[in-house]
Write a structure and sequence with these properties.
The complex is a heterodimer of chains A (159) and B (518).
Chain A lengths: L6 H15 L6 H12 L7 H8 L3 H10 L11 E6 L2 H4 L3 H12 L5 E2 L5 E6 L11 E3 L2 E3 L4 H12 L1
Parallel strand pairs in A: 1-3
Antiparallel strand pairs in A: 1-4, 2-3, 4-5
Helix pairs in contact in A: 1-2, 3-4, 6-7
Chain B lengths: L8 E4 L4 H4 L3 H14 L4 E4 L13 E5 L2 E5 L7 H6 L11 E4 L4 H4 L17 H6 L4 H6 L4 H11 L11 H10 L6 E6 L8 H8 L1 H15 L3 E6 L4 H16 L15 E6 L9 H8 L23 E5 H13 L1 H5 L2 E2 L2 E2 L1 E8 L5 E6 L4 H8 L9 E6 L6 E3 L9 H6 L8 E6 L4 H15 L5 H19 L3 H18 L3 H5 L1 H10 L9
Parallel strand pairs in B: 1-2, 6-7, 6-9, 7-8, 12-16
Antiparallel strand pairs in B: 1-3, 3-4, 4-5, 10-11, 12-13, 14-15, 14-16
Helix pairs in contact in B: 7-8, 7-10, 9-10, 9-11, 10-13, 17-18, 17-21, 18-19
The chains are: A alpha+beta (159), B alpha/beta (518).
Chain lengths: 159, 518
């Protein structure tokens, strides 16, 4: 992920990603992933450029971006923390962990801390169900997460 | 135990993401550093996990007698392991003895998971040295119809949850005339309590690649896609690494193993929509659309991806094909009970002391799994309820714990086996809250195409909230039952159609949690 200086930079970056992906069968999903991986989110301003390349309307692109929980249309914090809300983690106290995270970070789900360090998201299963409750920080999974473990993760991310 | 000191000792430290979640990366770094500090030659191999997750990070040392295990190892334990001379397999408080002799593992019947935890997941040489690609070699000597017959005769049923006979699906695609056919692997493992797909993809990705290649050869499909959930970044890495190696060695691409067959494979990332685990919604997503469920017919086997005949199978179904081809249909069918043939990779999850992966023939009871393998609850309290088969599976009370794991036996008690995930809850669970969560989850994940699911789920949350608040309990319970009936019978797919399973089973077995007499 990188900070983009200007709209021109963004357009150039988008253009490169579009030409790299547009000829794949079913190109939209891989393209959206590539955009989010590179830019950190899928800017709404990119819809028309994507649409033109893939012969889709802006509404169709918007429909796909907003259908999937993974895609976001706004810049996230420097780190994304996902707390698993699914049944297995509930059986091991994830509800208390969620409450603890929201309180410590002073945000709700889909929000970013005031220092821009952490965006908090809910997730429904990380496949770490034998070691519930589970949390994912960026692309790393943590198991048997206690409130203290969460505090340590937060401190590390804010550092 | 004898190990010549001047030969580099092999130390196995898992790269599986659950092991990583318990600090395996730090353990690996600490062991490398400590060995260097002490001037000891070691070779660290990043293997898959054996699936004894409560013992992760489990470190193994190769000896002439076999691999010796230590666990759960934390980075801070590493100096003491060296002090105790663990490289010579000496004892330490974390000693587990010979890995293969650990009772939990020894009693299992690992067919699909034969290599998992043993090999380096992305080493093709390791894969081949452990019977890899024997199934494909065999398949290349057979006709498409003969391969399909072997899969049909094995009795393999879709391990994703629907339990539809895999061979019958393949046969439909085989019988279709088309210029293009596809093999699609449904790796959108979104059910809570399940992780067997993830383990296969991270810990033995070649077996999935081989299974898909056999499917392609069998039905005449030249392109495969693995639709992988975005929550599994480590699986993505392992699969892509394995695909590159398989291509380079001629196991993928044109003229596979010198034959006339072509099969190309690509991983496509999902984007966090649970409903895309439903096969038609998955196909829409692969085509670059919103994951709206399609009407059936037409079946995907006839008009699937981009309108072409498509095999859509779960990871475990496809990963089981190589051993069926290698050892024969009868070998696989000899395991199991009734119409549930073979083995099921069972995932023990939630509030259990010993969670992990248990592959066994169908027929073992829930009670044996929960107590003999699971070791009872992690919190030490009585296990009150168990949800089998993910968020759309029924909750089972203690009185049903003697049910054998068998598709029909579960069907008979109005429950489902699904993908073999078992989530245990202790006696602090509030089943009215769980019923509410089932509706809430359905509301969050509904694709919105059919009314019972889209609107019913939200109305369900509201009515359960009234029941929890004690408002008109009897009337509102009746309302939930009516609503559930509509969702069961009127939904387009299993999301809306099966949400009543957790809701009604919670109500039927635990009425006291809903404010009504037992």
């Amino acid at each position: 992920m990188q900070d983009l200086q200007s709209k021109q930079d963004l357009d150039a970056k988008l253009g490169a990603l579009i030409s790299e992906h547009q000829h794949m069968p079913g190109a939209l999903m891989p393209l959206l992933h590539a955009i989010q991986d590179n830019i950190g989110y899928v800017p709404e301003s990119s819809y028309s450029q994507i649409g033109r390349a893939l012969s889709l309307s802006v509404a169709e692109v918007h429909g796909v971006v907003t259908f999937y929980h993974h895609f976001r249309t706004h810049k996230p914090g420097r780190h994304v923390m996902q707390i698993c809300r699914a049944e297995s983690c509930q059986s091991m106290g994830s509800e208390a962990l969620e409450a603890h995270a929201k309180k410590c970070l002073n945000v709700d789900y889909h929000q970013t801390t005031s220092d821009d360090a952490i965006t908090l998201e809910a997730v429904y299963c990380l496949g770490n169900c034998a070691l519930s409750p589970a949390v994912m920080m960026d692309e790393e999974v943590y198991g048997r997460v206690s409130a203290e473990d969460l505090d340590a993760l937060i401190a590390e991310a804010k550092a | 135990m004898m190990t010549t000191p001047n030969i580099s000792t092999k130390v196995y430290i898992p790269r599986d993401s659950s092991a990583l979640s318990m600090g395996a990366e730090k353990v690996a770094a600490a062991i490398a550093q400590e060995a260097k500090k002490r001037g000891l030659e070691i070779t660290i191999i990043r293997n898959g996990s054996r699936g004894l997750y409560w013992l992760e990070t489990m470190v193994e040392v190769a000896t002439e007698q076999g691999r010796v295990a230590y666990g759960p190892v934390k980075a801070k334990d590493v100096p003491s392991l060296f002090d105790a001379d663990f490289l010579q397999a000496k004892t330490h408080p974390l000693s587990l003895g010979l890995t293969e002799e650990i009772d939990w593992l020894k009693k299992q019947q690992r067919l699909t998971f034969a290599r998992v935890g043993i090999t380096d997941p992305v080493s093709l040489d390791d894969y081949i040295a452990h019977d890899g690609y024997k199934g494909l070699k065999k398949a290349l000597t057979l006709s498409g119809a003969e391969i399909v017959k072997a899969v049909t005769d094995s009795g393999l049923r879709g391990r994703g949850g629907a339990a539809f006979p895999t061979g019958i699906k393949w046969n439909t695609v085989l019988g279709c005339k088309s210029d293009q056919k596809y093999i699609v692997c449904n790796a959108d493992e979104g059910d809570s309590g399940t992780f067997s797909d993830r383990m296969i993809m991270e810990d033995d990705p070649f077996v999935l690649i081989e299974g898909m290649t056999i499917a392609g050869v069998a039905v005449g499909a030249t392109q495969g896609y693995i639709y992988l959930r975005s929550e599994y970044p480590h699986a993505l890495k392992a699969l892509n690494e394995a695909i590159v190696k398989a291509e380079a060695a001629g196991y993928l691409g044109e003229n596979i193993c010198g034959s006339t067959h072509t099969f190309n494979l690509e991983v496509r990332r999902a984007a966090g929509a649970y409903v895309c685990g439903e096969e038609t919604s998955l196909l829409e997503s692969l085509e670059g659309k919103r994951g709206l469920v399609r009407f059936k017919p037409p079946l995907p086997a006839i008009e699937g991806l981009f309108g072409k005949p498509t095999v859509v199978n779960n990871v475990i179904s496809l990963a089981t094909v190589p051993i069926i081809l290698d050892k024969g249909a009868q070998y696989y069918a000899d395991y199991g009970m009734g119409r549930s043939r073979g083995t099921l990779p069972i995932q023990l999850a939630g509030n259990l002391k010993h969670g992990g992966l248990v592959e066994l023939a169908f027929g073992i009871t829930l009670r044996e799994l929960l107590y003999d393998y699971g070791g009872g609850s992690a919190t030490g309290k009585p296990i009150r309820a168990v949800q089998v088969g993910g968020p759309l599976g029924a909750f089972l009370p203690e009185s049903q714990f003697d049910t054998p794991l068998d598709y029909e036996a579960f069907n008979n008690i109005w429950a489902v086996l699904g993908h073999g995930g078992i989530v245990a809850f202790d006696d602090t669970v509030d089943m009215a809250k769980m019923a509410r969560y089932a509706f809430e989850f359905c509301a969050i994940e509904s694709c919105g195409k059919c009314t019972p699911c889209r609107i019913g789920s939200t109305r369900g949350v509201e009515v359960i909230d009234k029941i929890i608040a004690g408002t008109d309990t009897v009337k509102n319970i009746k309302l939930v039952r009516d609503l559930s009936d509509t969702m069961l019978n009127g939904s387009l797919c299993a999301l809306g159609g099966m949400t009543p399973y957790p809701v009604l089973s919670a109500m039927n077995h635990f009425p006291e949690d809903f404010g009504i007499a037992k």
